[in-house]
Design goal:
mainly beta; about 150 residues
């Protein structure tokens, strides 16, 4: 999550939220997702109650290391805003682990492994850089790297 300024139609500036969340899904015996994706989502709410947001699931290239040490994801595609207008987005984000691996057993054969991380990168919207640098948001959860195993 990033917090970034958004200028409302009346000229006021509010804090918008930008999310980049990657996903790789596969089923045994496969070990890689043939079509990994990233969800990109932006939302700003202006003082008069109006809002501007966009969302999209775009193709991604995702590379990760063993033991959840880091993940690098990049990609580009189109998103649609609340008015139905499509926009070009691109992203290049790296998550680097900073905490120990925590394992949770969810049931027989089902588990989750997760590490706290630092995320940083660049996201563009219609060719303009929205964010460049560390993902910081004062009210959102810290970035993390996670795997889920379900049997």
């Amino acid at each position: 999550f990033w917090a970034l300024p958004h200028e409302c139609p009346d000229g006021s500036v509010v804090t918008a939220t930008l999310l980049v969340r990657t996903t790789r899904d596969f089923e045994y015996p496969d070990t890689e997702d043939p079509a990994p994706t990233a969800r990109l989502q932006y939302q700003a709410v202006c003082p008069d109650g109006s809002s501007f947001s966009w969302v999209g699931i775009v193709p991604a290239t995702i590379t990760s290391t063993d033991n959840l040490k880091s993940v690098v994801a990049s990609g580009s595609g189109t998103v649609r805003d609340i008015f139905g207008v499509t926009h070009q987005v691109s992203f290049d984000v790296t998550w680097t682990a900073v905490g120990a691996v925590e394992t949770t057993i969810n049931g027989p054969g089902s588990s989750r492994k997760q590490r706290e991380a630092i995320a940083s990168g660049t996201v563009t919207f219609d060719g303009a850089v929205l964010v460049e640098g560390q993902a910081l948001h004062p009210t959102r959860p810290e970035p993390f790297i996670r795997t889920d195993l379900e049997k």
